[in-house]
Amino acid sequence: MNDLTQATGEQTAAPEEKILSRYICTANHGFAPYAQEELRRLFGAVKSTLLLPGEIFLATLEGEPEEVSRVLSANLPIFLRHIQPVQFQDQGDLSALERLAVYLSRRSELEGEKVSLHVRKGATSFWQDSPGELREWLQERVQSLEADFTVQDPAWVISVYADGEALYAGVSRPEDNLSSWNGGMIRFRKEDGQISRAKFKLMEAEKEFAIPFSSFRNAVDIGASPGGWTSFLLERGLKVTAVDPALMHESLRNLPGLKILRKNAGEVKFRDNEFDLLVCDMSWSPKLMAKLVTGLLHSLAPGGTAVVTVKLMHKKPLAVIKEIIAMFEGERMQVQRAKQLFHNRDEITLYMIKY
Ligand SMILES: C[S@@+](CC[C@H](N)C(=O)[O-])C[C@H]1O[C@@H](n2cnc3c(N)ncnc32)[C@H](O)[C@@H]1O
């Protein structure tokens, strides 16, 4: 058992009296090194241990938890998808789970509150059953709290990570976890007849960035085929102009609110301020994409919104992203958020507003 076992409180004092906070940090698979780099840039030296290669790591940051939350919310990271505090650490076995239940039962701030219990397992875990079963097991054990266990709008989140040889847990406000979903994993059910999985990216952007899609009227979708994003925008009641040399899905042909231009984005001509929403999911070299899209920005009215995926083809994604953002900012676009969504693969999503 290590010296941080059980009910250690929110922080530990290192010999030189620095306040340290510990977190389990999650990024999309393969992007943990960039999430670590983001933390280094914000907090200086970061001690970190990989829990799941390329994806999940345990980080020790200098600063009190409140300070960490403040810095992160003022500098929202791109690749760090989710963090959960580690205030309890124990060995990985059932007796440790019993101790965790006692520890949680004593967290009086949870009493009678709406609480989400998020449970994840490592690649190997001492807990053989599903995370859902562990959640139910723990919920039973902390009944004395009389908490209202819920998924929607909790006041508090209990995050538990059951790894091969260790059990980690912490309690936080949902807004301090960078994402209110367990591990930042938002899942949507695939609909019957759904045209592409790419649609999930725009559905996630809607939730993550709180984009009011139904408030727009006229959208252009660049790189639209086969039409997942277009179908999403049509469902939100928008008129859509879809640009792509490739064919759109047959279910999207001859729809009244949809104009299909089977052309390269470099060949189309639009009027000034024609659209109030521009989306682009072109899977193309980031610089060429930015060149093509900025060439069409005159058609986006001031106050209009743009949602653009940026493919990360290079070895230095942070530098590429900086360059692409500068290209858009030079064209009166203000970046609201840049984030690698759970449904983004080797790319990130930019959410921008034109001024
Ligand atoms: C990832 S797919 C888009 C998926 C789409 N968002 C959906 O939800 O179904 C990328 C598309 O970009 C298109 N594309 C690539 N370069 C383009 C260009 N220069 N102009 C227009 N479309 C382009 C490709 O033909 C391809 O259909």
TrEMBL record:
Its EC number is 2.1.1.186. Keywords: Methyltransferase, Transferase. Coiled coil: none annotated. One of its GO terms (molecular function) is methyltransferase activity. The keyword Zinc-finger does not apply. Residues 196-284 form the Ribosomal RNA methyltransferase FtsJ domain. GO terms for biological process: methylation. It is an enzyme of class 2 (transferase). InterPro entries: RNA_MeTrfase_FtsJ_dom, SAM-dependent_MTases_sf. PANTHER family: RIBOSOMAL RNA LARGE SUBUNIT METHYLTRANSFERASE M (PTHR37524), RIBOSOMAL RNA METHYLTRANSFERASE FTSJ DOMAIN-CONTAINING PROTEIN (PTHR37524:SF2). This is Ribosomal RNA large subunit methyltransferase M. It comes from Paenibacillus auburnensis.
